[in-house]
Amino acid sequence: MKSLSLATTKKKESPLKRFIQTLKGEVPFALGNLTMIWQTLFFLIPSSILIYDSFISSTESYLTFENYITILNSTFFTILLNSLLLAFTTTIICLVIGYPLAYTIKYLAPKTKNILLFLLIIPFWSNFILHMYAWFFILEREGFLNQFLLSLNLISSPLAILNTKTAIYIMMIYYYLPFMTIPIYSSMESTDINHLEASLSLGATKMTTIRKILIPLSMKGIISGVLLVFIPSFGEFIIPELMGGDKTYFVGNVISLFILGESTTHLGAAFTVTSLVFLLLCVYILISSLRRIGKFLSSNGGVFSSK
To answer: What is the widest separation between alpha-carbon atoms in the chain?
Structure first.
């Protein structure tokens, strides 16, 4: 009787209701397909075209390795090292500043947490170019920074900060610091505070608790922040171009110069592919090192795993 009643209820279901139920079951699959279509159209296909163009001769349309042979010299290797140094230094400084900042927002300032997060995110509400020109007025010889230092008698003459590497690093750290702080803060938000309290109650100092428990538990946020800072910093070209006065060449500057050139497009494609392979190798080494550090900290007297 029960099977008969179920059969009759199924027959009474309207076509619209069956369509809605079918649609609900297919929506996740459809959304996944849209993501794959988007990645294929705007990442896989352009990347394939770029790799193909890197093997095209600049003079004649045939496949060749001459573009890669051209860029395998000390000049291009120096450019890769300049970008690596820029990305690595920016990442390390942002990590040194961002981790204590995330810790302060999460644990030391719970009452003002929302205000601090608001101040951290508010730069994203305005155009990046406006930030650049604001820093021009701060760092120029007659700008706010020099006038402030002169008023305190800390310097006798204005400092030449603009159009130097110092200006590049100041702007890089200013811009990428939120990308490091927010993932670390998010990982700390998901950390069980009972772990920290148990460590402190068992006699561990605050620094020991942070080093052996909090850092391994927040290692996923550290890795995310490092990736969000290191990868775009390696290819950054606007900040070095405007703040550095175009005195030092980086990967982003050279790629834009070659790709926009009339006869150097294929050479730029080859340099882009080479830089991408170099970047992927550096990212692999960096992530592996961070994971080993997390495992070492958690196993060297710690009680929790960083996985």
So the answer is: 99
For the chain, the structural domain boundaries read 72-299
Counting Cα atoms < 13 Å in the Cβ hemisphere of 137 gives 5
CB contact at 8 A, 224 and 183: yes
Q: Look over the chain and give the mean of its residue pLDDT values, rounded to a whole number.
A: 84
| Number of C-beta neighbours around residue 300 at 10 A | 10
Contact between residue 276 and residue 260 where contact means Cβ atoms under 8 Å apart = no
Tell me the angle at which helices 165-189 and 113-121 cross, rounded to the nearest 10 degrees: 140
pLDDT in tens, 246-266: 778 899 989 988 888 878 888
Distance between CA atoms of residues 180 and 174, nearest Å:
11
What's the pLDDT band for 307 if we cut at 50, 70, 90?
very low
CA distance linking residue 242 with residue 140, whole number of Å:
13
| Cα gap 88→245, rounded to integer Å | 21
pLDDT level of residue 19 (50, 70, 90 thresholds): low
Say if residues 188 and 267 touch (Cβ distance below 8 Å).
Answer: no
Report how far apart, in Å, the C-alpha atoms of 261 and of each of 39, 58, 258 are: 28, 11, 5
- Comparing CA positions, the residue from 279, 291, 299 lying closest to residue 231 is 279
The third-level CATH classification (topology) of the domain covering 72-299 is MetI-like fold (1.10.3720)
How far is 66 from 264, CA to CA, in rounded Å?
Answer: 12
* Residue 218 identity (one-letter amino acid): S
* Structure confidence at residue 4 (pLDDT): 45
Distance, in Å, from the CA atom of 236 to the CA atom of 38, rounded to the nearest integer, reads 24
Q: Is the dihedral of CA 245, 251, 256, 259 positive or negative?
A: positive
Q: How many other CB atoms are there within 10 angstroms of residue 255's CB atom? A: 18
pTM exceeds cut of 0.85: no
pLDDT tens-digit map of 204-230: 788 888 888 888 889 999 999 999 999
| Mean local confidence (pLDDT), 37-58 | 86
Find the mean pLDDT for residues 122-149: 86
